[in-house]
Amino acid sequence: MDENSVVGIFDAAHVRDFIIILLWIEFLWETYLSIRQFKKAQCVTEVPDEIKTVMSKNEFEKAKQYSLAKLKFGFVKDTHGIILTTLIIYYGALAYFWDFSHDINPVKGEVSTSCIWLFIVSLISTFIDLPLTIYHTFVLEEKYGFNKQTAGFFVWDKIKAFIVNQIITLLLSSVIIVIIKSGGPYFFIWLWVVVCILSMVLLTIYPSVIAPLFDKYTPLPEGELRTEIENLASQLKFPLTQLYVVEGSKRSSHSNAYFYGLFKSKRIVLFDTLLAKDDGTGCKNDEILAVLSHELGHWFHNHIIKNLILMQVNLFLLFLGFSIIFKYKPLYGALGFFNVQPVLVGLFVVLQYVMMPYNTVLNFLMTCLSRRFEFQADDFAVQLKKAEPLERALLQLNKDNLGFPINDNLYSAWHHSHPPLLERISVLRKNAKKVK
Ligand SMILES: [Zn+2]
Asked: What is d(CA 290, CA 238) in angstroms, rounded to the nearest whole number?
């Protein structure tokens, strides 16, 4: 063994330990926050005044148990994840699969080996995660009445998701590898341009091509609700072209609504769980219109475009960072890659691990920004004099989803991209007074 490779192995061990320490710091921080939230939730017994009108003491207690169960599940899932990741990194499991992919690949090229490797790794990780996914859907969600999936639907859904995921990931990865390998010294600019274009294409075709593979979309039937929504859209000059209901209730009974579409062709999608049903769940028409006014607030304030721009700027910075350090061999050695330096592995190590502190800070800032956007969208609905039905809708949705509205401040600040219910209601009421 010559001197250089000894130094190489030594440096690689340092990078490996650095990555593992970063991962554990993040895990311990998240666990600390969850424990704070757990303790806070555990000692609450009184139903807050704002939600007394819609939630009985029993329902509130059920919501509390549901939120505690989700926190416990999250803890098991995270612990399982961190131990597994530590072992994979420590024992160089990914490099082992790389060697195997290389051996069975008749072509031996980097693009084809990377694709085989990615396929094998995602297949294995899907199976490793399966017991937890099954528990989450068929035990946890089932117990609180949210699971609407049959075993058959679940299996077929997972297979479809895996296939679609593989097609997109393998195509995208192949393009990325070719650009990094042949893009010259400024490859990161080409990489950025191409990934930007591809992500825009995916975002554009996703709702009309990919989403219908998984769920059934039907046009909202003619009637009072449809007319009222169309009136609201034309009053605000929102270029509504299609109005769908998605059968989200086949998957789970958590409810929502959203709009999508670039430029002058927008579609609104309502989850069927949002619509009023005989069992008392769902929203009345004026409440649905208030929820849509909130969504249209996001459109009016260009929140989607602002988020897209931030996403692309971030992507540029990530690729720039990658281009600066991707030739540093210990990055690959840290994961057990001593003889080969596949660019896809380098991209994964840099984006996922080395830039973790940057990603974490950025995520937190994006969560703060998202809460700001939510308040702006709420205020848009308030200006349309929909504060009162919006409050009713939020309370109804919280009840239907068994939301537990009591939060530890730090936990909430870190995790909640939407402002907590009680805070939203108090701001709605305050702003509504100004409009009258
Ligand atoms: Zn919103």
From this structure: 15
